[in-house]
Amino acid sequence: MGPIFLLIGAALSAEPGNTGAFGAPVGSAPPGYRVEWICDITRKWTGSEASGSLTPRARWVRIHVWYPATPGTGATMTLRDYFDSPAPPGVPADLAAAIRSNDLGTPSYSFRGIYRGDEAAFSRALETRMAARNGAEPARGTFPVVVYATGQNDFTQDAVLLGEFLASCGYVVVTVPHLGTGPRRALLFVHDPLSYETQLRDLEVALQTALQLPFADGARVAAVGHSYGGIYALLLAMRGPLVRGVVGLDPTYVARRAPYELDLRKLPYFDPDLRLPIVTLRRGSGDVDRTLIDGFHRSDRLEIVFPGLLHGDFTTVAFLRRDLPDALQIREELEVRSPERAAAGASSVFRQVEASLARILSDQPIEGGLAPEDATKRSVRFTAACRVPTSEELYWILVRKGLDAARATAASARSTCPGVPVFEEARCLTIARELGYAGKESESLDMFRLVATLFPESSSAQLAAAEALSEAGKSDEARKRFEDALRLDPGNRKAAEGLNKLRG
């Protein structure tokens, strides 16, 4: 196995016959493991004192790190070791307690909930020997980085088997707990913008920590997430330049979300112009809503459906449940598939994740990135990206090449992707107005002219251009736009008033 570690940046193989803890697949390299606790002094964890008063403290982020290791190094691990890593001095006790409480859970929730009060089964699981070696020496070379986000408020160790698998295939993998802002709000909330910001900042700390490792390849970074973690993986990709692709595991970004959940498009960093490959692995059932993902017109999107699997079958849990007695299984799940089939499906999912990451991080088209096994049992849908300029790029074409060139580029883009709304009126108008705020009047007027051309059937676009042109003293042009706005919307009071003002 020695020569494999001399290949700088090479992916390691995931041999079908290799299995690790709980029968989960592993690759050809031993996975190493370590825990990092990072103090983020730019944020706070608001603790409660005995008196009831609140005290802001620094926020600490616990990071699980897996990586390809040198054979024969490090200490053997059981699953218990993943739960029992001590917090260093300085970590607020209530923060560490909140993480541990959510990870271990109760007989009806989180990890302990899998065993539904059966302490013997719970203890046996904790004593299971894992594939990872604690504190192992890293393998020689540099390896791509995967940031993994677990499902909303799931126990962090739900990532361990995928983390071990990917590390054994040549990846550095990092994950963090889901942790809110204080002891009362220790969980994350799907309606709360601060919860999204908190989790994304924690993931960014994990990514930054991973990139400081000498064996991490910062030029090859991907984000993976299960359930709501798929949303966090997608948002993480929008926040910085490093993430090169996203893999969602039965992700919530293709599920019909409750009305009280936050509209992600209202987040200030939401980027509909994302240009990254997105691979979605999902179950065959469920209430699918592709509205969000279909809006990423500039991204290649591969969707692979695994029929017969359930939501939890895309994670560590499927393997934990496989050998449990019927009394500890969930009846509704048994009606759909057996525990053995769930674990077999999870193995296929793991291999597909690795195959997808290999394509993404080597800049190969994801359309052909299918793992070879069980190909006939999956349905595949690929949507190619519209490789056209964004609204922001259209502005720079206008500045550097002129209004006519920008108009021609926009027309070409629309003919390239017929029926696809490749430009957003609101975004284009925002650019035009911001140019005015910045004192770039000529550019602002040209952008308004461009908007009027881009959206000839929009009364609001014609009115916005007319008002800007009128204010700049371009009466003839303004009159034409006011007339167009009225033609499209005869009851438009502002357009009528603007036109009358010019005539008067």
From the structure above, extract its key features:
single chain, 504 residues, alpha/beta, Rossmann fold, Serine Threonine Protein Phosphatase 5, Tetratricopeptide repeat, 2 domains, 11-stranded mixed sheet, 18 helices, elongated, disordered N terminus
CATH class identity of the largest domain: Alpha Beta
Average pLDDT works out at: 93
User: Gap between N and C termini, in Å?
Assistant: 87 Å
How many domain units?
2
Determine Rg (CA atoms, Å): 26 Å
Per CATH, the architecture of the largest domain is: 3-Layer(aba) Sandwich
Strand content: 15-25%
- What is the count of β-strands? 11
Largest sheet: 11 strands, mixed
- Shape category: elongated
Structural class: alpha/beta
Helix content: 25-40%
Order of helices and strands: EEEHHHHEEHEHEHEEHEHHHEHHHHHHH
CATH third-level topology of the largest domain = Rossmann fold
Number of helices: 18
User: Major sheet: order of its strands?
Assistant: 3-4-1-2-6-5-7-8-9-10-11
Brief sketch in words of this structure:
This protein is an alpha/beta fold and 504 residues long. Helices cover 39% and strands 18% of the residues.
